[in-house]
Amino acid sequence: MVESKVDIYNVFELRSKTTCYFGVGAINKIKDIADALKNIDVDKVIVVTDEIAYKVTGAWDVIEPALKEKNVEYVMYTKVSPNPTVEQIDEATKLGKDFGAKAVIGIGGGSPIDAAKSVAILLEYKDKSATELYEQKFIPTKAVPIIAVNTTHGTGTEVDRFAVASILDKKYKPAIAYDCIYPMFAIDDPELMKTLPYNQTKYTSIDAVNHVTEAATTLVASPYSILLAKETIRLITKYLPQALAHPEDLTARYYLLYASAIAGISFDNGLLHFTHALEHPLSAVKPDLAHGLGLAILLPAVVKHIYPAQPEVLAEIYEPIVPDLKGVPGEAEKIAAGIENWLFTLGITEKLEDIGFKEDDIPHLVELAMNTPSLGLLLSMAPVKATKEAITEIYKNSLKSISK
């Protein structure tokens, strides 16, 4: 496809199980969404966001008047942090319950939208807590309607059934995946990405690269998840440098956002394995660690470990980053070094030692990876057996640069 021939101002509907309004100006579809809510007797909503995203992106300047015009009352929860916690979800849920909210609008990146999905479940299961939800003490089958207004190009959460939260006292960061938390509607508007900070532009895009690396190589990978993976990496390789150099370039933002969305659909179908399962313990132990940075640190070592089992697929999808691979097992070192060098060109040079982890920390990280609720399912999807030794090796290979 020749990207230059696409009208980025043409707002189209990207349909998975979510109707996602995609394109420059898509935020204006909030009026149609408010009408749809009123048609199902939703007249009160809780807005779940962080302190910055809903304002600095300009999203609220459009959303608030639309809600008022359509007589949809709202209450706001703005305390969501990066790596949201079960305590925050419980606080937001109480606020929503007391207000009588019948739907949830999440505004932000993965953290606010994941928190919004969690609140949507707990508004239906009023006697349950976020800890019970994320420790899988019950299996939800219903949630109030979710509207996801996305402000980053990385997570894909606006078009998938996944959510993540941290249980800080146990150093757990589990994931959930339920059909009831597909958003009813999502908005993917590149205009909302222009204020995304430089590092977050990098880290969220690397999140999408990891999504497809895993989705293309799980035990349940399909031609569909592999096709989306190939296009995701091609687009990110092409447009991420442009977005970093020119943050207000809407074409670059458009294609990074599109890559993120199709990556979300890819792993919604193909699932995930090592990189996410091993990153969650990192940001559970260090909640200030950006998820995408943690993934970037692990990515070369993970690809090195799984390449002998999936050389043809990985050689094909990584061709824009590491060209001329033949797709044979002996290239594991070459592709790992090539991915690491590409990350270095983006200014992502950190390894585990640089962010405060030591070799002595690895046994605890391995234990968390193997025992945190839900992460075992991800590990079971890996193309090679996720033994204690394998996980240890990946963490060790992520302590320092592979190239040195």
From TrEMBL:
Pfam families linked to this entry: ADH_Fe_C, Fe-ADH
Segments crossing the lipid bilayer: none
Residue span, Alcohol dehydrogenase iron-type/glycerol dehydrogenase GldA domain: 18-190
Keyword Nucleotide-binding: no
Occurrences of domain Fe-containing alcohol dehydrogenase-like C-terminal (ranges): 203-398
Keywords: Oxidoreductase
Keyword Oxidoreductase: yes
InterPro entries for the chain: ADH_Fe/GldA, ADH_Fe_C, AdhA-like, BDH-like
Entry superkingdom: Bacteria
PANTHER family attached to this UniProt entry: ALCOHOL DEHYDROGENASE YQHD
Name of protein: Iron-containing alcohol dehydrogenase
